[in-house]
Design a protein that fits this description.
Elements lengths: L3 H4 L2 E5 L5 H9 L2 E5 L3 E5 L3 H11 L3 E5 L2 H8 L9 E6 L2 H10 L4 E5 L2 H11 L4 E7 L5 H8 L3 E12 L10 E4 L2 H10 L7 E4 L2 H8 L6 E3 L5 H14 L5
Parallel strand pairs: 1-2, 1-9, 4-5, 4-7, 5-6, 7-8, 9-10, 10-11
Antiparallel strand pairs: 3-8
Length: about 240
């Protein structure tokens, strides 16, 4: 039997897996949260790709990561290699993955999003070419900006994003999205309840939501799971948010 107190709790859906500490943090603020992944990540694995990555491990190179999934997909082939790489990456989860897989000393600079990262790379003024490890679905802003600045970009696709749409039988006060792919997967089989708020990890994800619904979208300016959860907590505690 559901108590009156439980009925009054905000009900939110998070569309990516979370560590137990983050789940506990949200629930400690009187919010009920369900978790349902709407996409699956599949690292690519073939002899050609493995050979290409191992060859790059043996070279000095400028490397770009905008996804922790890409970092992990590349690191599978690292073995005992200690690549002489200079790495440029977005912050938070991606930066953490780079630190864990390749070492903090490899990171030259970071930014909060791919577009800002491209601007910083261009500002360096001395980079002529780089390798961009990415997934099969990614925004073109970073490579386009770099190419326009006459920086040669070699894209190496190391993982695939697979939609796993599921019908959501329950109505939520809010749904949290962390990628446009998850947004598209959600709306493939679901419609937005008029009262549901949507939280987006950045402007790209927010734009994807706005293409599907006119509901309110609240955007986090930083690309971290914890930051988006904090934004949701703040909203439901205060019913106002400055984002």
């Amino acid at each position: 039997m559901v108590s009156e107190m439980d009925k009054n709790k905000a009900q939110i859906l998070c569309t990516v897996p979370l560590g137990q500490s983050l789940i506990d943090k949200v629930r400690a603020h009187g919010i009920d949260m369900d978790i349902l992944s709407l996409i699956a990540i599949k690292p690519f694995s073939n002899k050609s790709l493995e050979s290409e990555i191992i060859h790059l491990f043996q070279q000095a190179a400028n490397i770009v990561f905008t996804s922790a999934n890409a970092v992990n997909a590349v690191a599978r082939f690292k073995g005992k290699h200690k690549p002489a790489w200079e790495i440029y990456c977005i912050g938070h989860a991606t930066q953490k993955a780079v630190y864990e897989c390749f070492g903090a000393e490899k990171v030259i600079l970071t930014a909060d999003n791919a577009s800002e990262l491209a601007d910083k790379i261009i500002k360096q003024g001395n980079i002529k070419e780089l390798v961009f490890f990415c997934g099969d679905i990614h925004r073109d802003e970073l490579p386009q900006k770099l190419k326009q600045a006459e920086i040669n970009v070699r894209e190496v696709i190391v993982y695939g994003t697979i939609a796993t749409p599921q019908k959501i039988p329950k109505e939520y006060d809010a749904v949290l999205f962390f990628s446009p792919s998850a947004v598209n997967s959600f709306f493939e089989v679901n419609k937005a309840n008029k009262k549901t708020l949507f939280f987006a990890i950045g402007n790209t994800t927010a734009a994807a939501i706005s293409e599907k619904t006119s509901n309110i979208v609240i955007v986090s300016n930083k690309p971290g799971k914890e930051e988006l959860l904090e934004l949701a907590i703040k909203y439901f505690q205060n019913k106002t948010v400055n984002a």
